[in-house]
Amino acid sequence: MSEAAQKETLSFQAEVRQLLDLMIHSLYSNKEIFLRELISNASDAADKLRFEALANDALYEGSPNLEIRITFDKEAKTITVADNGIGMSREEVMSNIGTIAKSGTKEFLKSLTGEQAKDAHLIGQFGVGFYSAFVVADRVTLLTRRAGAVAGQGIKWESAGDGEYTLEEVAKEGHGTEVILHLRDEESDFLDDWRLRSVIRKFSDHVSWPIMMLGRSADAEEAEESAEEKPEEETQEKVVEEKWEQVNKASALWTRAKSDVSAEEYNEFYKHISHDFEEPLSHVHVRLEGKFEYTLLLYVPKRAPFDLWDRERKHGVKLYVRRVFIMEGAEELMPRYLRFVRGLIDTSDLPLNVSREILQKNQVVDAIRKGAVGKVFGMLEDLAEKDPENYQTFWKTFGKVLKEGIIEDYSNKERLAKLLRFATTHTDSEVQDVSLSDYIGRMKPEQEKIYYITGETHMAARKSPHLEIFRKKGIEVLLLSDRVDEWFVSHLHEFEGKSLQAVTKGDLDLGKLDDEEQKKEREEQESRFKDLVSRIKDALGENIKEVRTTHRLVDSPSCLVGGEYDMSATMERILKDAGQEIPGAKRILEINPEHAMLQRLQSEGDAERFDDLCHILYNQALLCEGGQIEDPVDFVRRLNNLL
Ligand code: ADP
User: Fold this and answer.
1) What domains can you pick out in the chain, each with its CATH number?
2) Is the CB of residue 343 below 6 angstroms from any atom belonging to ligand 1?
């Protein structure tokens, strides 16, 4: 070690401190999972070394048997989790351990209420990880040396979790990482061989690397037993012989037959790979042997990760080749709209030295992805059919993401459309639980289309005057109020031969739902109101494209509609909010000839009052669809004139 090696004291990112407090509080009744988290990290480190060593054998530095060793010291009150994996350089320690390298962390922390009890469940969205060590320890020491780095030169990181940490160069023989937990006094019961072994078996049995603990020879056990009877000096003479024993099964869980894996094991494996501390909602485990061979074990989580909407977010599916971990977050294996899926795919049809570039244009990968997507659909279809309650949980959490698939994945549109759920006028409830098949099942015999309305909120959609005629005739309408809805309906033109129709667009054509008599009546109204219609048009001038009588309305005097091919008003607002310059298409003002206000207009002799009434009629319609009045002062003035 050079003399220049100095101990440096550095500060955590402010967010780390906040996250630590939250974590300690959240995991209060679940403390033992710190061990699972540290073992998972150690296992990842071994995975990474094995992968890098494929190209450079020397990285093993002569010790290719990778394993994880757990020891404890009753006197010193420490537990040590050691691996001979990839290790970390000084820079890596600083960026991985002193900061939270996850984008969106700040936003996540902003979403916390500050009330720990309320926030406790949110930690699940974030993932637990290394910092869970502080749940049981009041000081954590990490010794590490990157495989292949200058022999003997390691880094020591230490912190009491109080906002600061120290870094210094130290001697470290082997490559890999040792995490030493200095337990809080009240956590001493973890300093127990039996306790630790049972925690390892419970949480980490399936970790594919051996997890070793010191076994005690018969001699040692005897020594311990007799220690209870004999005075201390005598027992200290006996040397406890060191012998490492493997505690876990260490067989890759996904290579086992489904029938050999219990529900608990599947759940624990999920937590191990995802750092989630809740159970998953559902999983699918299959081995495919066709043209290509691969095994997949994929999960749908219960809760959305905090960065679900972050476009840079890592995907959740890991790639293995013949049980060797290759890479994380392989987006080539799962489309964007299934980015919530976690798990792994293991294939024997790719070379071990496969790179990101190779993955991008590869027919094996394409075939695997296609198969995997099909399996995820199968899992979701199953859930929807057999467990609607959990499907509802899924839909609430990930429905908006799944809808992106309608836009992105043309080839699976039909299958995806069946998985969609909507709020509709059938119950008017905000809960999205009606499938398109349910809707079709309830369609009137003469009904040819699936009707929908979009609004910025559920309330806005539900209360829209455009629905009046549909309610009167008892025709169900889908109520769409998620942001993605505007896009996705423009990509879903039909479902099972029925086209989707916005109730706010075009000339309302109810097809066979309209009877002849009503049609005649409307034609008669149209000619009766022809004069009034053109007077209103003159009064409103440039504001609108056209005025016409309508049969859409029952209780309201007026509404605005778009042309068949115009952008909807909601879409226009979304784009404007996003800072896009768009030339707003002029709308059509439809008036309800049955309404008293129109009768009043019809007989209004005063030109100024007529003008005021027209503007009020127009602005009311604008307000009802969630729009903004361009000149509120003018509107109020006109209203007051009339009052
Ligand atoms: P996560 O594992 O979710 O990324 P952690 O907080 O547990 O978050 O760990 C942060 C990072 O620190 C890991 O991604 C890894 O790069 C590094 N790390 C943690 N433990 C080890 C270890 N035993 N060996 C090598 N690197 C590690």
Assistant:
1) 3-210 (3.30.565.10), 215-244 (no CATH), 253-388 (3.30.230.80), 421-503 (3.40.50.11260), 516-642 (1.20.120.790)
2) no
Which phi and psi angles does 320 have, rounded to 5°?
Answer: -120, 145
147 lines ligand 1 (CB under 6 A): no
Give the C-alpha separation, 616 to 610, whole Å.
10
Q: Is 45 in the pocket of ligand 1 (CB under 6 A)?
A: yes
Strand, coil or helix: what is 536? helix
Most ligand 1 atoms within 8 A of CB, residue of 40, 91, 96, 177 to mutate: 96
Closest CA to 616 of 549, 608, 456, 468: 608
Q: Please say whether the beta carbons of 425 and 470 come within 8 A.
A: yes
Q: Which residues contact 279 (CB under 8 A, 6 or more apart)?
A: 267, 270, 271, 302
Whether 559 and 620 have beta carbons less than 8 Å apart is answered as no
Amino acid found at 319:
L
Q: Provide the edge-to-edge strand list for the sheet that holds 558-561.
A: 544-549, 587-591, 558-561
Q: Is 616 in the pocket of ligand 1 (CB under 6 A)?
A: no
- List the Cα angle 466/470/474 in 5-degree steps: 155
Question: With a 6 A CB cut-off, is 618 part of the ligand 1 pocket?
Answer: no
Q: Is the CB of 405 under 6 A from ligand 1?
A: no
Contact 146, 49 (CB under 8 A): no
42 Cβ inside 6 Å of ligand 1: yes
- Calculated CA dihedral for residues 591, 593, 599, 603, nearest 10 degrees: 80
> What integer pLDDT is reported at residue 102 of this predicted model?
59
Listed in sequence order, the residues at least 6 apart from 235 whose beta carbon sits closer than 8 Å to its beta carbon are 223, 226, 227
Which of 126, 130, 181, 209 most suits a substitution to test ligand 1, by most atoms within 8 Å of the C-beta?
A: 130
Nearest to 601 by CA among 615, 619, 586, 622: 615
Which atom of ligand 1 is the closest one to the Cα of 131?
6
Question: pLDDT tens across 63-116, in order?
Answer: 899 999 999 999 999 999 999 999 999 999 988 886 665 566 667 777 777 676
The pick from 44, 126, 342 for probing ligand 1's pocket by mutation, whose C-beta has the most ligand atoms within 8 angstroms, reads 44
The answer to whether the CB of 227 falls within 8 A of the CB of 219 is no
Report which protein residue has its CA nearest ligand 1's atom 20: 41
CA of 88 to the centre of ligand 1 (A): 9
Structure confidence at residue 1 as a pLDDT band (50, 70, 90): very low
Report whether pLDDT(219) > 60.
Answer: no
Collect all residues with Cβ–Cβ distance below 8 Å to 599 and sequence separation of at least 6.
none
Going by alpha carbons, the residue nearest to atom 17 of ligand 1 is: 96
Over 70: is that where the pLDDT of 311 sits? no
569 has a pLDDT exceeding 90:
no
For the chain, give the percent of residues with pLDDT over 70.
88
Tell me how long the chain is.
643
According to the model, what pLDDT value does residue 3 have?
43
> Which tokens in the block code for residue 233?
């000096």
Of all helices (H) and strands (E), which one includes residue 285?
Answer: strand 282-289
Q: What is the pTM of this model?
A: 0.78
